[in-house]
Structure formats: structure tokens, C-alpha cells
Structure of Phospholipid/cholesterol/gamma-HCH transport system ATP-binding protein:
Amino acid sequence: MAEEPVIRAEGLAVAFNGNTVFRDVTFEVRRGEIFVILGGSGCGKSTLLKALIGLVPLAAGRAFLLGEELAAARDDATRRALLRRIGVMWQSGALFGSMTLAENVELPLEEHTALPRPAREALARAKLGLVGLGDAAARLPAEISGGMAKRAGIARAMALDPPLLFLDEPGAGLDPITSAGLDRLIVDIARDTGTTFVVVTHELQSILAIGDRCIMLDKQARGMIAEGDPRRLREESTHPTVRAFFRREAA
Ligand SMILES: Nc1ncnc2c1ncn2[C@@H]1O[C@H](COP(=O)(O)OP(=O)(O)OP(=O)(O)O)[C@@H](O)[C@H]1O
Ligand SMILES: [Mg+2]
């Protein structure tokens, strides 16, 4: 029997004030995969992430994460237990400016575990080491570059060793070389730890470099217009918007 997918989304729809952002969004994410959600600005990528983890209500459909349905988990303890197993780096996910990088990474450990301080510190340092920031643990966010801040955000999202990590536009605002370095880091973490990644991006280079599979959302279509291996979509898709995106053509 096939392994239960890490995410199963069935006919998801979200609407704000009666305006549908997307509907009929159906896909599965398998364990250890780097799954990319792509599409133009305002098509609903961040909203889809929020809907998956229950921060935005679904107008229709069902979402199962790690075998459980968040919306069906009525009590707080069940929701907390599930959310604890999911790491998120938000698009606007800033670090707390008054705290060192190590203290930022320690926050989820403080919130969700009863570990004593020295153990939290050791874990935070290990996570910062994993993203190449072992020497910057004592620095404040204002004292590091944008690329370092993104990596610290990933370290914080990984603090509790979640089997599933959501990253909303990790490469945005970075130069191409730093962004490529971040892509490499994501691939390394996925391969070394078996962590499943859901990455939102609209950077074509990133998608082709890291994406095992992807879905493409579209604002006009209010839903998915493509699904599959991004390299195959680039070669084979006949959808004008999908072709335009992957081949940098005018639609
Ligand atoms: N809380 C909200 N209330 C009302 N409308 C919202 C809310 N959140 C998002 N929207 C609308 O939903 C649509 C999708 O927004 P979303 O942030 O998901 O887009 P996105 O694909 O992540 O865009 P970007 O690439 O710019 O980050 C937009 O039209 C946005 O204005
Ligand atoms: Mg967004």
C-alpha cells in the first residue's frame, strides 16, 4: 500500500468577503518531497498555506496534514500537538529585533517544551549551525544580512524538528547567488533529514532547482492551472499562462 501523503488537500476553496481567491485546489505532498506552490502576486499562495494550517477558514474542501485533519481537531490540545509538528517561515516572518539569533531560535522550544535553558541553548546553536550561522548565534537581527536573516528564520522554523516545513518566499529580496545558496540549503536539509518542504516562490530558477513537484495557482482562473514536475511542465505544458511563466514568454 502506498504511504499516506504528508499533505492531502481535497477541493480546497477560500473566499474573503464573498470573493473567491481559489477553489477546487486538490493535491498531495509525499514524504521527503520539496513541493513548490507557484504563481503570480495575489493568486493566493500565502492564503493557501494559511488555509492548510487552519489560520484561514476553508469555504470548501478538506485538508489533511501528517495524517490528521486540523479543522476536525476541535480541542486546543489536539491542534497544538499537530501544529507543533509543522514549522513555518512566513513571508513577512521577521525575527524579533531585541533578541539574539539564538534566542529567536529558542522561542519555539520555550513555548512548546519543558526543556531546561542549557538544553534549549544547545539545540538552538545546533540549528543555527545547520544553516551555517554557528558563529552568529549572539548577533542581533539588525547586525546580519538579509540572507542570514532568512537562514535564521529557517533555523527557527526547524527548532522543534518538524517533519513538515512551510517556507513562504524564502528567496525574496535576496541577490541571485545568496538565493541559490538558500536553495542548496533547502535541498540539503530535505535530503539529509527527510523533512518535507512546501515552498512558496515565483522565482523560476528556484523552482527548477529545488522543486520535485509543483502546483501553479492563477488569479484569473481562481485556482490551479498546472501540477507536476516543473521541468516537465516547462517542456510540455500547452497552457498559455503556464508556458509564459516557464519560458518567460509573453502570454
Ligand atoms: N485576510 C484577508 N482578508 C481579505 N483579503 C485577503 C486576506 N488575505 C489575503 N487576501 C486577498 O487574497 C488574495 C491572495 O492573497 P495572497 O497573499 O494569498 O497572495 P500571494 O499569492 O501570496 O501573493 P504574493 O506573491 O504577493 O505574496 C489577494 O487578493 C489578497 O488581497
Ligand atoms: Mg504571498
Notes: Strands lie at 7-16, 19-29, 34-38, 60-65, 68-69, 86-89, 164-168, 196-200, 213-218, 223-228. Residues 45-46, 91, 168 surround magnesium ion (ligand 2) (CB under 6 Å). The mean pLDDT is 92.
